Amino acid sequence: MADPLAVFRTVNVDATKDLARQAARHGVHRFVFVSSIKVNGEMTQYASFKASDVPAPLDAYGQSKLEAELALQQISRETGLEVVIVRPPLVYGPGVGANFLRLMQLVQKGIPLPLGAIHNLRSLVALDNLVDLLIVCAENLAAAGRTFLVSDDHDVSTPELVRMLATAMGRRARLVPVPVGCLAAGAALLGKSAAADRLLGSLQVDIRETRSVLGWEPVVSTEEAIGATVAHFLSRA
Questions:
Q1: List 17, 55, 61, 227, catalytic entry
Q2: Are strands 124-126 and 147-149 parallel, antiparallel or unpaired?
Q3: What are the beta bridge partners of residue 49?
Q4: Considering the entire predicted model, what is its pTM?
Q5: DSSP line for 148-196
Q6: In order of start, what are the domains of the chain with their CATH numbers?
Q7: In this predicted structure, what is the pLDDT of residue 193?
Q8: Residues in domain NAD-dependent epimerase/dehydratase (predicted)?
Q9: Predicted confidence band at 116 (pLDDT cuts at 50, 70, 90)?
């Protein structure tokens, strides 16, 4: 089996470095890099993540994104290329895949979900909000050399997300209040602890610096973005 970190480095580090150096050689003024909140870590407990936090990636993907950030900062020092880094949490929108898609599929089928006793908070970012911020980062003079976090500025619990999806589908959320400890233990037995952590744990980002430095605000609400995501999903079902 291939080394995951080596694979991620090929795309996230080597390819990014090559693109940035080509950009600098061709006179590109600014390079906006989409990193990941995984650079900060996987979970929050007592405080939301900030861009100024000491990086603490816990998996190969997050480590590769951190290495790419550091490489870009070095290239910036060598060439004068302005670098702006954006670290999004989970990105969703029409056409979303992976766990978000699977959750929509379960809600659509009306399958009872053992998630009713979860009391967490997760930051998400709608694709429209992320794209809007990237445009601002490309154009705003104050963005140069900075790292920004981004979200919809409306953190949701896993049960709340299920209810929002169900409402957008015109369905009733079927949530069963199974104790969180039982869910975590069951996931561990199945070798799915990492996936369970994303459902059970909290991951919040603080975007106050992004808002104050750039004068940026999310352009769509979570409810609007969930509605658009679900509408696209249902149109393809």
A1: 61
A2: unpaired
A3: 205
A4: 0.93
A5: EE---S--B-HHHHHHHHHHHHT----B----HHHHHHHHHHTT-HHHH
A6: 4-236 (3.40.50.720)
A7: 79
A8: 2-146
A9: very high
